[in-house]
């Protein structure tokens, strides 16, 4: 089934070039079905790359999805044109009276700041509060996961001795959860961050449960017991070359970064990396959309957020 996005969005051409079914807006409005409404709050500076990466994952499902992009109004993005933002993004003021089946909150390169020192933190708090009444299920990614846990549950992040960057082996903690259905017992996932949320802090909270961890990288997937909030501490959306681009960017800035772990063949940055996390990453998005959005969201979009208890039966 297709993903519905604006015809002129840069991601449209890229996805069509990969033979991904992208439906035009005209064709979508002439169908007698309701697509899932998914809102992406894109906090990454590389907005076009992140849009394309996440939409690639959303598109590879048997569901029709109407994607909308959200930006913070209290922060000026320097790495994308104002025209792109004005054309394809909406502000919270424009969507706050609407309802969505799903919300994705991306990561952001602000981990080393205290949450309250981030210039758009008050706006992000309003969006996260709004999501509890106007969104059926929310998926938080990397710093977005740390921010969500802090805002909703008061769990603090902690600075790491050095940047965690690479592809790490993970283990399932709750293998019966539909979110990780189809995952291997051991699987690989990408991390790229300077901070962490400690496993013991999450394990001690009665409203949260851990689904997957890594002995080296720590927490990977956490969810709320009521199955409305999901927190992923890696970057399942990353392309094969994203860590490489980050590594080269840091080198150019004189940061002298460590070579990403388990990424370049033989740890040789001159060789092309292999994507060893794509299958689990796709399952993560597909399972979230299927089990925690599509199968439980109300058909009447106006009722989204009113029946939070309806999801309690999903583990």
From TrEMBL:
Q: Where is the active site?
A: 142 (acyl-thioester intermediate), 235 (proton acceptor), 237
What are the EC numbers?
2.3.1.31
Q: Which InterPro entries match?
A: Class_I_gatase-like (IPR029062), HST_MetA (IPR005697), MetA_family (IPR033752)
**Family recorded in the similarity comment:** Belongs to the MetA family.
Decide whether keyword Metal-binding is in the record.
Answer: no
Q: Record keywords: Transferase included?
A: yes
Q: State the name under which the record lists this protein.
A: Homoserine O-acetyltransferase
Q: Where in the cell is it found?
A: Cytoplasm
Known function: Transfers an acetyl group from acetyl-CoA to L-homoserine, forming acetyl-L-homoserine.
Residue sites binding substrate per the record: 163, 192, 249
Q: Which Pfam families does the entry link to?
A: HTS
Q: Which organism is it from?
A: Enorma phocaeensis
